[in-house]
Design a protein that fits this description.
elongated, alpha/beta, about 180 residues
Length: about 180
């Protein structure tokens, strides 16, 4: 089965696909969302992008305008914020390609936010507990190939936990303070 690589931005997906492809990658679309199909050393690979955060925190159960709120869950961003409606198409493409993939690699920015984006894409869109991790600081062909060939066996747990913690604290502080002040 093919491998699925998830980047953070459309431009990064294209650069990764071009760098890894043995020949020119094919650019495909599902709806408005572009993804790439390529062969790297006789292995079929799909490269898609997440366009930033596809998932956002929200209250587990809406109980009116009350506080404090500490029971939260990750949900698709389009369910939480109308302005994030465009993310629905990207989630659908990742979900569809993930069903026909048996290997998953995260190639988002190597920072706390990138780790959270990759973690959420893996666990919610791909239904995976973990995946490999490409680490790169530039989008040069040489660095992308090296990053792919030397990918970590899993995400950076410390970065993912730090990123998630920041999201939880921002949410708890922001929602509870706003509601306390308005009530």
């Amino acid at each position: 089965m093919p491998e699925l690589i998830i980047s953070e931005k459309p431009s990064a997906a294209k650069r990764i696909a071009t760098a890894l492809a043995d020949t020119k990658p094919s650019e495909n679309k599902i709806g408005k969302v572009r993804y790439y199909e390529l062969t790297h050393k006789n292995k079929k690979i799909y490269v898609v992008c997440a366009v930033g955060h596809l998932y956002a925190l929200t209250e587990k159960e809406k109980n009116g305008w009350t506080y404090p709120i500490f029971d939260v869950v990750w949900k698709p961003a389009y369910e939480v914020n109308k302005e994030a409606d465009f993310t629905k198409d990207y989630i659908k493409v990742i979900e569809k390609i993930a069903k026909s993939s048996d290997k998953f690699t995260i190639a988002t920015d190597y920072d706390q936010e990138g780790e959270v984006i990759g973690l959420n894409a893996l666990r919610y869109a791909c239904k995976q507990k973990s995946g490999q991790r490409m680490k790169f600081s530039t989008l040069t062909k040489e660095e992308l190939i090296q990053s792919y060939e030397n990918a970590s066996k899993s995400l950076d747990k410390s970065q993912a936990e730090a990123g998630e913690t920041r999201h939880f604290l921002d949410y708890f502080y922001g929602i509870n303070l706003s509601r306390a002040l308005t009530l």
